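Workshop exercise sheet. Pairs work together: one partner reads the sequence aloud, the other fills in the structure field after running the prediction. Swap roles for the next sheet.
Pair: D.N. / O.F.
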Amino acid sequence: MDLPTYRNVLEAANCLRDVARRTPVLTSKTADEIAGATLFFKCENFQRAGAFKFRGAYYAISKLKQREKGVLAFSSGNHAQAIAMAARLQGLHATIVMPEDAPTVKVQATQGYGAEIIRYDRYKESREAIAAKILEERGMTLIPPFDHPDVIAGQGTAAKELIEEVGELDYLLTPMGGGGLLAGTSLSAAALSPKGKVIGVEPAAGNDGQLSFREGRPIEIPVPKTIADGAQTTRVGDHTFPIIQRYVHDILTATDEALVRTMRFFAERMKMIVEPTGCLPAAIVLQNDNPFKGARVGILVSGGNIDLARFAELINAG
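Structure field:
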């Protein structure tokens, strides 16, 4: 199995230079005071299609040799939107397998980018099995949301930009679902900030990554019930896990309650909307008892795609 390296991240960065947005790195004195650390927020919620996923999707599609039958993906939303937009930009048809409970804003955006959507019940059906049947019938090319070398390399460009802008970091935290962003981030960090520690953060209700990391082997869990829909994965990827094992320092978890508090902080103090999954790293750091006191900490804010009604519901209830 060929795993991506930092050289692949550099190739992805060249591909994305005039296509992906170089998203801003924001700071907050209030956040620094709460954390007792110096925080740098890489805001991929301002990326095209509203999340870091555009990076990996565009780069993976750009590398395809068989293009005429289009691309297939399965996703709860951000990868779906990214594949739909990236395919449209490169003149390919896209079909996306999406769960029935995917956020409406993500479904509508995916449709708006021109993709065909096939719905399924994530608690009763296998998206992999559905995708396999479609591939057999249509001969399309599958680009999974995280377990793909080119997707991993593309995701690593966000951390590359962050470190280039702010310098070496003591810690770099990213959300974790299947591990694509975490794996790509760790490749960039190992090359550009080798003394820093990379940490993944996943929902407390869905800690398959943490269990796998500590057991030294991939562990599968039932579909977790969490507001972090972008991290409702059941198993770390076969490509992502070896990279995570080699380069990542630890994997932590955040509760849904902490995610809501962090959503509110971002909205009130930094004037931006961040979806629950994008709040995972900051939810760990914005605690008085966090382990990052006095450190320079990079935080990947992965996305901002959430229904406004749902956003208001969570903020008002929390």
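Discussion prompt: The domain at 6-50+148-317 is CATH 3.40.50.1100 (Rossmann fold). What would you look at next?
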